[in-house]
Write a structure and sequence with these properties.
The chain has about 170 residues and is of the alpha+beta class. Helix content is about 20%, strand content about 35%. It is globular, with a radius of gyration of 16 Å.
C-alpha cells in the first residue's frame, strides 16, 4: 500500500493525474460511455467495461475550528457523485470513482478556512468551469485490496486530460 501511495503522490506532484481544468475539448479516446449531470454540468466518460455502472450520490461536509465555540463547525456542504463499477459486490469490491462538487465560492473558502473535507488527505482539483469545481480526495484509491484501482486511476486521468488548463489554486 505504501508504494501505491508514493506512486499516486508522484503522479499528483508531476501533474500526471490531476493536471487538468476548464472546459472539455474532446471526449476521452477509448471511453465510449458518457454520464452527464445537467444540474452541475458534469460530464464524465467511462470505458465500455463499465456498462451497467451505477451512480451513488452522497454529501461532503467542510468543517473548521471555531474558537468562539471551541469546536469544529460546518462551513459548507456539497454533493459527491460516485461512479460504481458494475462488477462491484459487497464481498467483492471494485474501486469507486468519487467526484466532489464545489461552487467556485466554496472552493475558494475551502482553501482559506476548511480544516477537513473527508478523513485525512486533501481534495485535489480535477477541473473547473464557470460555476463549479470538480475535485477528488487524494486518498480515494489507497486500499490495495479493492480491485480495479489502476483502471479507476486511468479513467480519471483520461477525463482530466479532456479538461486541460490551469487550476484555480495550487493543490
Amino acid at each position: 500500500m505504501k508504494s501505491k501511495f508514493i506512486l499516486f503522490l508522484a503522479l499528483v506532484l508531476c501533474g500526471g493525474l490531476f493536471g487538468c481544468s476548464t472546459e472539455a475539448l474532446n471526449p476521452p479516446a477509448g471511453l465510449p460511455l458518457r454520464y452527464h449531470d445537467s444540474q452541475y454540468d458534469l460530464t464524465f466518460s467511462l470505458p465500455a467495461s463499465w456498462k451497467g455502472y451505477s451512480i451513488l450520490k452522497q454529501q461532503w461536509t467542510g468543517e473548521a475550528y471555531s474558537p468562539e465555540k471551541d469546536t469544529d463547525v460546518v462551513r459548507g456542504r456539497g454533493p459527491i457523485i460516485i461512479f460504481r463499477n458494475p462488477q462491484w459486490k459487497t464481498n467483492d469490491r471494485y474501486q469507486d470513482i468519487p467526484i466532489y462538487i464545489f461552487t467556485r465560492q466554496q472552493w475558494d473558502d475551502s482553501h482559506l478556512r476548511y480544516d477537513a473535507v473527508g478523513a485525512g488527505g486533501i481534495i485535489l482539483e480535477l477541473w473547473h468551469d464557470d460555476k463549479y469545481v470538480f475535485g477528488m480526495h487524494s486518498r480515494y484509491n489507497t486500499d490495495d485490496s479493492v480491485k480495479g484501482w489502476k483502471e479507476a486511476e486511468e479513467i480519471v486521468r483520461q477525463n482530466c486530460a479532456a479538461h486541460p488548463g490551469p487550476h484555480l489554486h495550487d493543490n
